[in-house]
Write a structure and sequence with these properties.
The chain has 393 residues and is of the alpha/beta class. Strand 4 and strand 5 form a beta hairpin. The protein contains 13 helices and 18 strands.
């Protein structure tokens, strides 16, 4: 009999898992607490390791058509813009890894994924369904919703993000902790910027205690800016809070004129800052019928641009592990066994990047990059991974 899998959360991770599991022949139901499907109005980078899965789901070309393929990944000093390191993306990335490096709009990616899932199974995604608890027996897993209803299946997958209640119930409610950094996110239309403003490259601008990331999305129609700042937050502050434009401006005072120009063009009434939260990485994240994926399992600072990519890889590996194994517990064990080391390395490398990107002096930054070949390193272990073909052992 076809196994039924309940997925909690219709974010990028939950939807990708749903697509991969449906394609593998499982029956899937996705439950999302929000009343409608939506994503943050910001950019997202999708390297080959994630694009393999999106190609497998048949949405790679759609994403590529709405994206920008950056020529290079560029590391710069925050004030002069001096390039301290760079490696090629675009054609070289495609040739090396057989899938492109895309810079997309999150809402486009999310929409393509939800359309894909609904195309594979109508009414697969159920909205307004907030899970408050689950129960696991030897025969099934059951979730209880806030509205008093419930649903049962053979397997339960918590794709419910960094605040995951599925994870809470499995391992105890260790609260997410503030990483010390907050991220401003804005986009600026191309027509508001001078002609030939910034090449189609992905830039990290590094300065004392903060860094900024700039890249083009929407086929070059929008410039995406993320400004990550070491900053204390009030304990009662919302994770996503609106702040005055003056605060954004003062955070990047003295930075390169291109950065100042982007900030000057931000919608002054719509300046939001995300407090970045983390939870400890757990080694065992499955029981006999329940598992977690994406930020629920391994939330990370976004300083390697791989949080969603890891969630996307998780979905592909989960589907393959269940197909490959003789029983559900073995499949869930095989899945997490093959995801733990890689996702832990992403979390650790992102933490290391926080230290490097926020070094105090140009000399320290130059010194660091003179001893490290960022392109070789990432091409070697990060972008070269193909979740559809990697041996699962
Ligand atoms: C500034 C910034 C930039 C980033 N840039 C990149 C990038 O360039 N590339 C990249 O790969 N990653 C990036 N990331 C990371 C990426 O955004 C996340 O890792 C990814 O979105 C996690 O997806 P997810 O599906 O695991 O969780 P989420 O996106 O958090 O989705 C969880 C879903 O579960 C739902 N949910 C939660 N609780 C319940 C419940 N009880 N019942 C029902 N539904 C529930 C939520 O409503 C939500 O829809 C970035 C992150 C930040 C903050």
């Amino acid at each position: 009999m076809t196994k039924k899998i309940l997925i909690i959360g219709a974010g990028l991770g939950g939807l990708t898992a749903a697509g991969c599991l449906l394609k593998a022949g499982f029956d899937v139901e996705v439950y999302e607490q929000a009343p409608k499907l939506a994503e943050v109005g910001a950019g997202i980078q999708m390297s080959a390791n994630a694009m393999h899965v999106l190609n497998h789901l048949g949405i790679g070309d759609k994403i590529s058509s709405q994206s920008v393929r950056p020529a290079a990944y560029v590391f710069r000093l925050h004030d002069t813009g001096e390039i301290v390191d760079t490696f090629s993306l675009s054609e070289e990335h495609l040739k090396m890894h057989k899938a492109p490096y895309n810079q997309a709009h999150r809402a486009d990616l999310h929409r393509f994924l939800s359309e894909c899932v609904e195309g594979l199974k109508e009414n697969c995604i159920r909205l307004n369904k907030k899970v408050i608890q689950f129960k696991e027996t030897a025969r099934e897993a059951t979730v209880l919703f806030e509205d008093g209803t419930n649903a049962s299946g053979d397997i339960l997958v918590g794709a419910d993000g960094v605040k995951s209640i599925i994870r809470d119930q499995m391992f105890g409610a260790i609260p997410a902790t503030y990483t010390g950094d907050s991220a401003w996110r804005i986009t600026v239309p191309r027509e508001d910027l001078p002609e030939n403003f910034m090449d189609h490259v992905m830039s990290v601008w590094m300065g004392p205690g903060k860094h900024a990331v700039t890249y083009w999305i929407k086929g070059g129609e929008l410039l995406n800016f993320v400004g990550c700042v070491e900053t204390p937050v009030a304990p009662d502050e919302s994770w996503t809070a609106k702040f005055s434009w003056d605060k954004l401006q003062s955070d990047f005072n003295g930075w390169h004129p291109d950065i100042q120009r982007i900030i000057n063009l931000a919608d002054k009434d719509e300046c939001y800052r995300w407090a970045l939260y983390n939870r400890p990485v757990v080694q065992q994240w499955s029981t006999d019928r329940v598992t977690i994926l994406g930020d629920a399992a391994h939330s990370t600072l976004p300083y390697l641009a791989q949080g969603a990519a890891m969630a996307i890889e998780d979905g592909a590996v989960l589907a393959r592990a269940l197909l490959q194994s003789g029983s559900i517990p073995d499949g869930l064990e095989l899945y997490q066994q093959n995801r733990y080391e890689r996702t832990k390395k992403v979390v650790e490398t992102s933490n290391m990047n926080r230290r490097i990107f926020h070094l105090n002096s140009a000399a320290e930054i130059r010194e660091h990059f003179s001893n490290r070949n960022e392109g070789d390193d990432r091409n070697g272990w990060l972008y070269s991974y193909n979740p559809l073909t990697v041996d699962l052992v």
